[in-house]
Amino acid sequence: MPAPKTSRTTPHHGQDQPRKAPIDRPLSVLGGRVTWTLTRAVRVNISPADQEHTGSPPGRGASGYSGIGAASGLPVHVAFEVTCRGTPDPTTWYVRDIKEIDRAVENAVIPLLTRQVSANRVDRLSATAILARCAREIDRELAGGVWSVRWRVTPYHSYEMTPSGQPATQDQAPAHADAGSASGFVVLRQRFDFAASHRLHNPALSDRENLARFGKCNNPAGHGHNYVVEPAVRVQLRNDHSTGFTFDDLDEITSRTIIRRFDHTHLNADTPEFSDRGGVLPTVENIARVCYDLLSPRIAERDHLASLVSITVWETDRTSSTYPG
Predict the structure, then answer these.
(1) CB-based burial of residue 9 (10 Å sphere; 0-12 exposed, 13-18 middle, 19+ buried)?
(2) What domains does the chain contain, in order, with CATH numbers?
């Protein structure tokens, strides 16, 4: 099932909020340092044929579940996730009205994407250049407060950028960033999968203790999962907003370093990283950490202006771990 279009999380920093906060109480009661994030996913269908046939701008209309605009002809379907950060309005208790976010994405994204879909190859911008423009325009439309904009160019590939192009927090910047470049950074994410079996059995515990602790996951024959792996790589942009490190690089390095190593194996029996003789317990938490430790140096070797920020591993659609988290 697709993820919900809107999520609100609280809080990020500062004092804890009271267990029950009356909506009519002044915001100062919560402490001025408390911040919320609000993420709104806006799906957009770009159908240039509509403009040719009717003369109306393509992709316009209410932001329904399937996206703004009808998917006629051969449409381009994309999703933009806009994350705003701030304190809720004391009257509405919105960090931001989601209708305003929808309108900002509609005004900033649709005209630019429509021109790019129709443009010839020479006039087309790179995806990162498009996102940089969209992030700035969405932030301008909302008069500030946009924390980041993530563009899902496919269900499995995405770019994420702040309106300023700088890392969301200073400690997330690549260690070898070129101070002479003012173009900023982008985070690339791509999903991969591998099938593997494992057994959760801690040799420091007795058989009875292992069975009590891990239950069916302690089955001596093991059990399997279709793991999904998503590396997040922060890349410094060139002056033209292109990247030296691309999805082609991420695909090749991750496939060689992670997927080929673990796909169709019994992690405990077939891999030194999770071996019963000196490896770590193949929990989803440890799998994320091992994947990070394997992948991070390979990415740095390929491009010193790219760095692995984190890896998320899904054991099932309901259970995942991100390292570092």
Answers:
(1) exposed
(2) 6-165 (3.30.479.10), 187-323 (3.30.479.10)
Alpha-carbon distance of 27 to 277, in angstroms, equals: 56
Distance separating alpha carbons of residues 150 and 157, to the nearest angstrom: 10
Mean pLDDT score of the chain, rounded to an integer?
A: 83
pLDDT digits (tens, 9 = 90+) for 4-45: 455 545 455 444 444 444 444 444 334 455 789 999 999 988
Is 264 an annotated catalytic residue? Answer: yes
- Look at residues 76, 82, 137, 83 and name the one whose alpha carbon lies nearest to residue 107: 137
Asked whether the beta carbons of 178 and 243 are under 8 A apart, the reply is no
Catalytic position from the list 77, 157, 217, 304: 217
Q: Which residue has the tokens 């490896």?
A: 279
Q: Average pLDDT for residues 282-296, to the nearest whole number? A: 98
Active site residue 315: yes
Q: Please state the pTM of the whole predicted model.
A: 0.81
The encoded tokens of residue 243 equal 């990247």
The pair of structure tokens assigned to 97 is 């009205």
Burial pattern 278-308, b for ≥16 Cβ within 10 A else e, equals eeebbbbbbbbbbbbebbbebbbeebbbbbb
pLDDT tier at 1, thresholds 50, 70, 90? very low
pLDDT (tens digit per residue) in 293-307:
999 999 999 999 999
d(CA 157, CA 251): 11
- Are the C-beta atoms of residues 257 and 294 closer than 8 Å to each other? yes
Amino acid, single-letter form, for residue 29: V
User: How far apart are the C-alpha atoms of 140 and 132, rounded to whole Å?
Assistant: 12
Q: Which of 106, 230, 273, 315 is catalytic?
A: 315
Q: Which of 53, 223, 264, 301 is catalytic?
A: 264
Q: 105, 103, 44, 104: which is closest to 69 by C-alpha?
A: 44
Nearest to 321 by CA among 228, 218, 247: 228
